């Protein structure tokens, strides 16, 4: 299966620690997205890349959050000085942007618990 | 700006009954429309999508949705549900000129025997 993969699947950390998540998109996809999902809500957009360029960041993405996609392939999402409010499922998606479609395919997510 | 409203947060139905999950959207530009399904502790799986052309789209497991531009709706239907259809369903819109999707808050479909 060559779908979107995310690691780790679960992360438990103490408040104030830094955490980093990795996303590997579908290989030919040029766009990569990060979303955050809390219980009982739909995914909320955080940021997205086209190749290695970060094209948009949500206001939800505070200064403690940073995302990279250095070679236009995998991406990392880092959260510094984690807070309990950061506890959520972090979802990655990828797509192949073309003239008439931009369908996003999601990975299994990384569930973050901040104690 | 765009927004998505899923009108029912929970829909309980009996097995083999028909079901409709309602989705309305608001956008000032043209959009693509999607339905995703999410099983517990998993990511989102694409169920079906409307990009252009026929306003009625179907999935491989019997779901269908109809794009209604005048009513800005994209309701999901299935004529006969199974226990295995129990899951969370999300409606999403994508600005055809932008990257991010906007999701509704989801509808929990519970199919009872």
Key descriptive features of the protein:
heterodimer, A: 115 residues, mainly beta, four-stranded antiparallel beta sheet, 11 strands, 0% helix, 49% strand, globular, B: 113 residues, six-stranded mixed beta sheet
Architecture blueprint of SSEs:
The complex is a heterodimer of chains A (about 120) and B (about 110).
Chain A: E1 5-7, E2 10-13, E3 19-24, E4 31-37, E5 44-50, E6 53-57, E7 65-68, E8 75-79, E9 88-95, E10 105-106, E11 110-114
Parallel strand pairs in A: 2-11
Antiparallel strand pairs in A: 1-3, 3-8, 4-5, 4-9, 5-6, 7-8, 9-10, 9-11
Chain B: E1 2-6, E2 10-14, E3 19-21, E4 23-27, E5 31-38, E6 44-50, E7 56-58, E8 64-68, E9 73-78, E10 87-95, E11 101-103, E12 107-112
Parallel strand pairs in B: 2-12
Antiparallel strand pairs in B: 1-4, 3-9, 5-6, 5-10, 7-8, 8-9, 10-11, 10-12
How far from one another are the termini of chain B?
41 Å
Oligomer: heterodimer
* Helix content estimate of chain A: under 10%
Major protein interface: A-B, 29 and 26 residues
Global mean pLDDT of chain A: 92
**How much beta of chain B, percentage-wise?**
over 45%
Shape of chain B: globular
Unreliable stretches covering 5 or more consecutive residues of chain B:
none
| Measured distance between first and last alpha carbons of chain A | 34 Å
Q: Order of SSEs of chain B, N→C?
A: EEEEEEEEEEEE
Radius of gyration of chain A from CA coordinates: 14 Å
SS elements, strand count of chain B: 12
Count of runs of 4 or more consecutive helical residues of chain B: 0
The SS-based structural class of chain A is mainly beta
């Amino acid at each position: 299966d060559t779908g979107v993969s995310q690691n780790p699947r679960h992360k438990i950390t103490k408040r104030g620690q830094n955490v980093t998540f990795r996303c590997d998109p579908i290989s030919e996809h040029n766009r990569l997205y990060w979303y955050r999902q809390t219980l009982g809500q739909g995914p909320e957009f955080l940021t997205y890349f086209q190749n290695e360029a970060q094209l948009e960041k949500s206001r939800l993405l505070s200064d403690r959050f940073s995302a990279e996609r250095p070679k236009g392939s995998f991406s990392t999402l880092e959260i510094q000085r984690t807070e309990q409010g950061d506890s959520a499922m972090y979802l990655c998606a990828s797509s192949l942007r073309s003239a008439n479609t931009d369908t996003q395919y999601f990975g299994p997510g990384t569930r973050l618990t901040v104690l | 700006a765009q927004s998505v409203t899923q009108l029912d947060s929970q829909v309980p139905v009996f097995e083999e009954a028909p079901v409709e999950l309602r989705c309305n959207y608001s956008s000032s530009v043209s959009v693509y429309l999607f339905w995703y399904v999410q099983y517990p502790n998993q990511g989102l799986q694409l169920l079906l999508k409307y990009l252009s052309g026929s306003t009625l789209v179907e999935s491989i497991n019997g779901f269908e949705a109809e794009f209604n531009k005048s009513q800005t709706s994209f309701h999901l239907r299935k004529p006969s549900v199974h226990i295995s259809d129990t899951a969370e369903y999300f409606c999403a819109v994508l600005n055809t000129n932008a990257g991010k999707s906007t999701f509704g808050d989801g509808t929990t479909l519970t199919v009872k025997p």
